[in-house]
Design a protein that fits this description.
Layout: H1 5-15, E1 22-31, E2 43-44, E3 46-59, E4 64-69, E5 74-79, H2 89-103, E6 111-117, H3 127-143, H4 150-165, H5 172-179, E7 184-189, E8 195-199, E9 205-211, H6 220-240, H7 252-258, H8 264-288, H9 292-309, H10 315-327, E10 331-334, E11 342-348, H11 349-367, E12 372-375, E13 383-384
Parallel strand pairs: 4-6
Antiparallel strand pairs: 1-3, 1-13, 2-7, 3-6, 4-5, 7-8, 9-11, 9-12, 10-11
Helix pairs in contact: 2-3, 2-4, 3-4, 3-5, 4-5, 6-7, 6-8, 8-9, 10-11
Bound molecules: alpha-D-galactopyranose (GLA).
Length: 386
């Protein structure tokens, strides 16, 4: 169901003193290619989606934040000066963003807020980044005279994940949420933070997500393990090749040189990341030539790497990927951090209906439920609605 401004407003009025505040929104994201490359200093290719988190905020003249989660029907109050904050994760995002904005010197005051979202949770579409970006953008506007630049707002969301949630994520999700632009994907160099918008209108193709409905709630520790593997390999490489700062700088020969010094598992993880670095560059060239068949081939290669080398897929997602392949879909792969969530599929217009049909039927037979179909519409980034 599409999230509407009126729904958030009516709940805000109902839960607080009847008056209204300002409404802000930030989207979830897709990622065409470049997975688990952001924290390795590489390139990513995300775009914002139309699904978003929306929040109404109004200063309340105290040091207390009164927050109501419309979706979870849950309410909390916390003091901005409390060093610990609330324990429920959905409120820790809000708390973390407030504290990170305060660290930047923004004079955050207490406020009332009600928020809701239509980014599916745990689906690899970055519902948490959407929540963080919404509050970072709102607080900057409401208390900070919009003095904090957009990159720093994205970093506030990332720091919230690191410091209050325990997920050592990269910058892709928050970046895409803040910088999204309707109709465009964004290539971001996660080392230099240079970015370029790529208008994305693949004539004759659609992008569609299939949500396996396997939630990746408990994936934080496995995600952090992957990141540690990459860092282990970099540490070993640095002993031979001092110029290597991240796996972005590495190639297969360097990996071969340190094979005896790192675990097999770590080497396999690094192999995936190095391969993904080349794939992103190849996709950039293919996009410039409108060669979507090549883009699709790279998506399948990425999936194989994520499944067999990085090992962040699961049987449900591998199944959806195989259905795509057997239907002749141009490209398909697991999207986002992994361990469940969605496949992203690049499918020609004529194959769209038969593919969705086959995926629904096959998945239901095998796993007892249908995958949820999400047609991708590339939307705008963080904004004030009213
Ligand atoms: C999660 C993280 C991102 C990124 C992706 C994998 O979404 O939040 O920073 O690492 O996984 O590409």
């Amino acid at each position: 169901m599409k999230l509407k401004t009126e729904d958030v407003r009516s709940r805000f009025i109902e839960h607080f003193d009847g008056s209204t505040g300002s409404i802000y929104a930030s989207p979830g994201r897709i990622n065409l290619i470049g997975e688990h490359t952001d924290y390795n200093g590489g390139f990513v290719f995300p775009g914002a989606v139309e699904q978003s988190v929306m929040a109404e905020l109004k200063p309340n003249g105290t040091r207390t934040v009164r927050a109501y989660s419309i979706d979870l029907k849950d309410y909390v109050e916390f003091s901005l000066d409390d060093g610990k904050g609330p324990s429920a994760t959905h409120f820790r995002f809000v708390y973390g963003v407030c504290r990170e904005m305060m660290k930047l010197g923004v004079p955050v005051e207490g406020f009332n807020t009600a928020f809701a979202g239509d980014v599916p949770l745990g689906a690899g579409m970055s519902s948490s980044a959407a929540l963080e970006s919404t509050f970072a953008f709102a607080i900057n506007d409401m208390f900070g005279e919009n003095k904090v630049d957009k990159f720093t707002l994205a970093k506030v969301g990332q720091a919230t994940e690191h410091n209050y949630i325990g997920c050592n994520c990269g910058i892709m999700d928050q970046f895409a949420s803040v910088f999204g632009k309707a109709g465009s994907l964004i290539r971001l160099d996660c080392r230099s933070l240079q970015y370029k918008y790529f208008p994305f209108h693949p004539d004759g193709y659609k992008l569609v997500l299939l949500n396996s409905q396997v939630k990746h709630d408990l994936a934080s520790s496995a995600y952090n393990d992957r990141r540690r593997s990459c860092e282990n390999v970099v540490a070993a490489m640095q002993r031979h090749f001092p110029g290597v700062q991240t796996l972005r700088d590495a190639d297969y020969d360097m990996l071969a040189a340190v094979r005896g010094e790192v675990s097999e598992e770590d080497a396999l993880r690094a192999k995936y990341v190095i391969g993904e670095k080349y794939r992103v560059m190849e996709v950039c060239v293919a996009l410039e030539e409108d060669d979507y068949e090549e883009v699709g081939r790279k998506m399948y290669e990425t999936h194989r790497g994520l499944s067999k080398e990085y090992e962040v897929s699961c049987p449900e997602i591998d199944f959806l990927n195989e259905v795509a392949q057997s239907c002749g879909v141009t490209g398909s792969r697991i999207m986002g951090g992994g361990f469940g969530g969605c496949t992203i599929n690049l499918v020609s217009d004529e194959l769209y209906a038969p593919f969705i049909d086959a995926a629904k039927k096959g998945y239901k037979e095998r796993f007892g439920k249908e995958p949820l179909v999400i047609d991708v519409v590339i939307g705008d980034g963080s904004r004030k609605i009213c």
